[in-house]
Amino acid sequence: MKRGKFVVMSKMKTITINLSIVILIATAAGIWLLQSSDVKETTGKTAEALEAPATAAAIASSSPVSTVNGQKSFADLLRQYGSLPLADAHNHDASGGAYNRMMDTWKRDAMDRVVLFGDVSERSAIATDATAWNAYVDRPDFFTPYFSGFDLHDKSSLDVVRTNLEKGYFGLGEIAAASTFSPVVSRVEWKANDPMDGFLPKIYDICAEYKAPILLHIDPPNGAVIDKLEEALDAHPKTIFIFGHANAFNSPENVKKLLEKYSNLYADFFAGFTVLDPASSNKLEDFIPVMKQFPDRFMLSSDSGYGVKSEEAAIEAMYRVMDALNDPNLARKIAYDNLDAIIRSAPATRTQKEAILKQDPSRDVSKLSKLEAGLILWGKSK
């Protein structure tokens, strides 16, 4: 009986409480309705609009934008373009093992691939080439190793180039094909006088054989050394040449003329220089028309933040290029697809195929690319 009485009393209390709540809600609603007419008059928004929950798109569109020069914040750019693949086509972080310190940054900044090497055309590059290779073996899905540790004036350079490409390196770079004004590259011991100096012509032939790109440092980006670059482009039409930081101290018109004349030339666009470096005499918008004219011939790079505030600042500049293009499909091509197509075009080498067959004699290796072979040999799922 006590239990039944408790239930009845409890129900009565519940009814009383609920009735009180209804009265309170009705009162509050009346006050709100009176106020809503004022809101509608002062804001032009209906009560329904004020009540509607914010969608994800609305939140994104209302996210704060940097007030510095009216630019979007880096966070805004990451939200807008972070889902697009992004590759850094020119990175020196094998030097000093700096790539280890960048892993969290690359993850945070949605980087999908890094072309990794270290020192440029000098003896110390032999060690940084090895560092780039070790990074690749550890993460073949992320790193693409290049090398530059050979004396291009010595015939032995031909053996080094062939051996490394056979091993699985994807390209050569950064190679000092000419340098007069760079405070770093002008002093390296194995630099060329021009892009046709030493054994470079024969090295270009080996690159063509392996479908391996060669990334060249050339300064100044005009005059006699560019004449020699054109000579190389003419004489080696099957070689993939990448003009390193082609926009640095160079005009859009000069880049355009070269791309118009030579289909085997690609432009590595060091975004940080044009976007951030006061020494740049051109603005980003000056290069956008050239990028749109040659959408298959540009790639983006950080150059490890050389000469700018930081490497991450240089990555942010890459995103600003994507934003300035104002076309997601075009942004994807320049940010990733153009480089990816070059990397995927290289066939697996004899050395790679033999190593794979030792692991699995039944595997068909006849049509493997170098990229696929590397993932089989070094990937986590091997």
From TrEMBL:
- What Gene3D superfamilies does this protein map onto? Metal-dependent hydrolases
Domain of life per record = Bacteria
Q: What is this protein called?
A: Amidohydrolase family protein
Listed InterPro entries: Metal_Hydrolase (IPR032466)
The organism encoding this protein is Paenibacillus sedimenti
